[in-house]
Design a protein that fits this description.
This protein has 13 helices and 4 strands. The N and C termini lie far apart (about 70 Å).
């Protein structure tokens, strides 16, 4: 069985889950356990144990019961992994899948994305806060607790679970990790995420023109996210994945300066 097949099989249970957030948190817990305890990971990856044994082991490790999380982990551990660390990663991804499916089922997935975007902007625009949420010297539980205290009470439960899981992860900057999760949600919704940094908000006409241009290039619906950036005097920067198009005033001045130098150098040669 491939990872794709395992995900499709797990999705049936996820769609029927009465509490996707609790199931997601259980998968996050098991993923962290596999990442930090080699013996536990070895036990789950041992092919001599039948799936039912692995389900019972997962159940005994969880602080709160989640039959779905146990079944999903048992299924994932039956796959052949080229790298052991991929098994905990897959469990983590399935946890996020639970959150997205749960929010989609309630018709709140777009709201979850908006809430995460607002919190991600808060973290990315405050270097000290971003550093605290990314602090590797603090335990995952302390980072998660700090995140929980910062999150608005009115946020959807899936938004809170996503944000706190990012704080527990601890690899790289918090704002970058949360941005990646927002990108995953956008892909899950069948859209292409395009980030626009600008000193002042784009007009409605500018936004629609940019979305139309991106749609023609990417061949799929576009989710345009505007991020205020006071460092840009004029114009804007557009980013899609690793591709960045700099149309800021600074970039235009640099291009003009280079063109002028080349023209002067050519004139001197003549």
């Amino acid at each position: 069985m491939s990872l794709k097949s395992a995900k499709e099989k797990s999705r049936e249970g996820i769609l029927k889950s009465p509490d996707p957030v609790s199931d997601a948190e259980a998968l996050f817990f098991l993923s962290s356990l596999l990442s930090s305890h080699d013996k536990v990971l070895e036990a789950f990856l041992d092919s001599s144990h039948i799936p039912e044994e692995k389900e019972r082991l997962a159940s005994s490790l969880l602080p709160s019961p989640s039959s779905l999380a146990c079944r999903v982990l048992s299924l994932l551990s039956s796959l052949l992994w080229s790298q052991r660390k991929d098994a905990p990663w897959a469990a983590d991804e399935m946890g996020k899948e639970c959150l997205m499916e749960g929010a989609k089922k309630r018709g709140e997935l777009e709201k979850v994305r908006e809430e995460l975007e607002s919190f991600q902007f808060l973290a990315s625009s405050n270097a000290l806060l971003d550093r605290c949420l990314s602090d590797k010297l603090a335990s995952p539980s302390k980072r998660s607790d700090l995140c929980r205290k910062l999150l608005p009470e009115e946020f959807e439960p899936e938004s809170k679970a996503f944000a706190q899981r990012c704080a527990e992860d601890g690899e790289g900057r918090y704002s970058r990790r949360l941005s990646e999760d927002i990108g995953s949600i956008t892909s899950f919704m069948g859209e292409a995420g395009v980030e626009v940094r600008c000193a002042s908000p784009l007009s409605r006409a500018q936004e629609e023109a940019l979305k139309d241009a991106c749609f023609k290039k990417l061949k799929k619906p576009v989710h345009l996210r505007q991020i205020p950036d006071p460092s840009l005097v004029g114009g804007f920067k557009v980013r899609y994945g690793a591709e960045v198009t700099d149309m800021s005033a600074q970039a235009q001045l640099r291009a003009l300066s280079v063109a002028m130098r080349e023209k002067m150098a050519f004139s001197i040669k003549i």
